[in-house]
# Entry
Amino acid sequence: MPADRRAVLLYAWWLALPPVALGADAGSGAPGSFTLDNLDRSADPCADFYQFACGGWMARNPIPADQARWARFNELAERNRAVLRDILEAAAKGAGPDPLDRQIGDYYASCMDEAGIEAKGAAVLKPQFDRIAGLKATGQLPALLGGLHLAGVDALFGFGSDQDFKDATSVVASVDQGGLGLPDRDYYLKDDAKSVEIRQGYVEHLKRMFALIGEEPALAATHAQAVMELETELAKVSLERVKRRDPENLYHKLTRAQLLALSPSFAWGGYLDAVAAPPFESVIVAVPEFVQRMDTLLNSVGLDAWKAYLRWHVVHAESDLLPKAFVDREFAFFGQTLTGQKEIKPRWNRCVQATDRRLGQALGRRYVEKAFGAEARSRMAALVDALYRALEQDLRELPWMTDTTKQQALAKRAAMANKIGAPAVWRDYSSLRVVRGDAIGNLERAQAFELRRQLAKIGKPVDRGEWLMTPPTVNAYYQPQYNDINFPAGILQPPFFDRDVDDAVNYGAIGSVIGHEMTHGFDDQGRKFDKDGNLKDWWTEADAREFEKRASCIADQYAGYTAVADVKLNGRLTLGENTADNGGLRIAHMAFLDALGGRTPEPIDGFTAEQRFFLGYAQVWCQNRTDEVARLLAQIDPHSPGRYRANGVLSNMPEFAAAFGCRAGQPMVRENACRVW
# Structure
């Protein structure tokens, strides 16, 4: 996923909750519903609660061949895709006159037309390749890049629009690093044996892709090495992920003249004309050193190497809609080698995801009509309000923060908004031309539509109603510049919410997700934005120091956990998510106790209400994953693995220890428990 400086995007999940109904049955039996069959009763909950809560599920749910990891949220995502498939296949039959249905149906049908794609072969790449071949001097490169960016080719850098970090009402132009084929800069720079092996595999992959577009072996090898060398130079000046977590490191506001001076060899005028950028006076350059190095590479790298680099990124961007040989080769490296996935997903599954990415609100509109109702929205709103009250109580009672900073924190909580389910106003795709049978053309036009939509925001008022996820998405997020929490309709199902299960389980599962998103407003990134969404220091020095001390406790705790073999988690990369997990569950627990109103429900199936609360939380994190994807995610994912999202949080909570009778010295009771919120 491309870097988005505006949002803190999460793998967090949430759903709606009915009014408190103590003594409900143990589960609905619906797909994904909470069940005690997921337990491993041979495990000691005070030694490894994750194994106790999830061991049965893990044993019954090996990783499917077309997945690199299999978790509770994957189960729900696949159920949602089945719903989307039904919608798209009906639309693809062309039975109805509605233009929205024709758009999504034609896009999906074109993606599914394997025979047509095979018949066209690699010739569909010729228009882009001809433009690249016509490059006579590097001075023409910026204008060419503009056309490629419109087509969705992620070459060299990213250009778009963004809220001004220090003026959340203003949308400005933005430039950021980009242009790498491997998932992260560290893949190019680390010298451990596994990184070297992956680089060698990447070069071999490049050779084979160049061969598929018709190059002789010797030339393909030369071009593969040229791409690797160029991308390595870009990686050297790409800002590492931990440093990107500090918004101050990404905020360099320049005038248009200063941008031109930063990279004098790069013909920005030609580029901006090519993407039809509106006039602007200010631009946020996330990584100035990257833009400077890009400028020097323009002069030092030969034209043939640039052409090879651009051809590769065209093929890479469009490979899913090329003949099977290209699809299989891309999967062999990016699927099998990097993630350990054994088989590629079925064609329909990939085309559903592709339609969701390119026409997400058109498809999402039909999904919401089918799968999300007013009752779910109202229940969700009520639960969010309950968690808001718990967060306010937590802030007021926080023992380590002074009143001066508390008042600012409470003001931020009071200003925090929320969006539930789907947009109030749906996106208009009427200007996007979708042609049945033109899969590559549809992709390129959809990418151009989105870039132009982003660029049209420059100089316009901020639309605080905009969503950064599509409605069927199984996820949720906090947006620091909007200061709002967002819950797509796609998450409003078991195991994250089940209307037929007892409230303890629901509060542990979805209540913790709501609390998680709220806590992001006060994690190591979110705390640096004020109630209006501006990058502003509202902390006293003493409180800031205390926050950093407490955050360091969490960072050090998770840095001690092993991702796979010789790879530890990066405690600083995962700090925001771990802080939100810890704070979110604590806030959900407070809300649950408040909902009980001092009552003590009868145990269900031998577990007390508080025990079921913690089981409900842990079971949303049940997962199995390949070693390869575990290694990959340890480098790029700000989220910890499910085991540590469960055990890491619960071992910091005295309430958990009391619920399960765990004693000091047992693994699930940390001697020096960490707490920020």
